[in-house]
């Protein structure tokens, strides 16, 4: 009786959710997926029935990562609130059948529509766009078989009013660009393969009937991202040919992201010369061959730049300061800077300099002072070695950038120079980096308590101080300057990797523990840290970084053994918000203990494991999939046989596909000759965001699209 009376007293003193004001309830409901609001929550009571249909909740509908949505839910959603939707994002809904798109026609007032990654035929697109007369922003894929001649006059009339277009090309085509005569923003993603499934070489020539000229006269933003391959380069040149004839007067952002070598031609040179004469830019990214050795940057004019990317360019620090920052000009408008792979960008000259030579701290200081409002900075894929000068360490200078939200650094750049000098030169050889016979070594025991570690060493290190000064950092990447993933894009898996930088051997568990100071950290990437001995710093991160959603670990510690497995399992038990996990490590054993620890990550949605000579336990994988109900992507590229991989993949699909419509499972031998054929069938959302390793800090301008 006493227990019952206490419970009734608690209920009477408790706060009823329905007693909150409408404003507070609307704010709470804004975190609930729209499908749940309309199809479930609004049926609970009259008050919620009214609030769930408030314009603030139905104006914009985001389905792009609502992995539980299916065709029937979309149909019901459009039927109930279709007329109230002004912005609809279905990007990456690869699991929905193409017939689902037919229901979008109910959204008569749509202004913005994102269908990237959805299956849309020419006829369906024509039928849908014919009814959307208010549409101004559109994102679609152009797949093989697309035929612009099937677009109706009503569809073309809608396209003529579209001012923003994002188009992902899987086949050589102009897509709908020629129909969009009012374009102000054009984003192009070229994902065309050089060979067909049958092995035939593809041509970059456009299909017959696709000779219509794009209309760029009103263009303000031009962005093109190319996947590897010569066909993509051929097709993008066709898009650029029109720009080279007449450069739009209002162009203020010109960005081309191209891997490898993308040679400059006469047409592109004319385009750049015209831009130098006629426009003032706010954002710039060019292929490295267009910048290297040219005086282009000296002639281009900038207004209030917010984004620069000189990734992989041989730009020296002297040129960077003189031609881009104008000798220390105030660039408070610059919020995002990508210098990934610019090995000489922090040195005055590049002609007689080795990539491993010390940086010139005065150049970095000028950069920090001029660009004091930077929010995204990428300095990865280079050897940025600080000298022994007191107060001029790279970490000390970067600590002045108080507004940073994302940062990418090479491992060797965070080495504490003073501590490094004190260590004997034989330290790098303590941990073997070969795949041969394992050498039995003594492993230093690190305390797992963060306070003990701080007292031991790291509170005085420059990296510890940097992490302490960047309290609001959300994304951090620490990547070895010579690291390359075992799983490249369109070629066989890499069998050998380059050894880490000598200075990287001074970065270990204590530096990883320093990252735990980042209370608001959401995404963490650690790659090629050879001196990880126990992984104890990972446990600290798991305990302190409770907002962590994305974790990517690659080649930590000695390569012949996963030395951090115990610490990783302890860490995972605390990662309640973790959604994406990518692990790349030779000889990784994905067994029962690992998956039992991973099962504590109740929010996990995507898992990718890449392991040369790695093993897995099929029963453990099945148990994990059964216990973690949110997992919709499972990619494993291991050392198991093709038969084992296929059987496990089929078992997972057979057991869970019906309950999880978005389920995507790929389990395949890493070194199999058909790996590239398997990769091409992976949905682009997963391939680009997690399966393929890359640095993502300042990869694109902020808020480029939705």
UniProtKB/TrEMBL annotation:
Protein name, as recorded: FXL18 protein
Signal peptide interval: none
Organism: Machaerirhynchus nigripectus
Organism taxonomic ancestry: Eukaryota, Metazoa, Chordata, Craniata, Vertebrata
A Gene Ontology BP annotation from the UniProt entry: SCF-dependent proteasomal ubiquitin-dependent protein catabolic process
GO cellular component, one term: SCF ubiquitin ligase complex
Domain F-box: 14-61
Pfam (any one): F-box-like
PROSITE patterns documented for this protein: FBOX
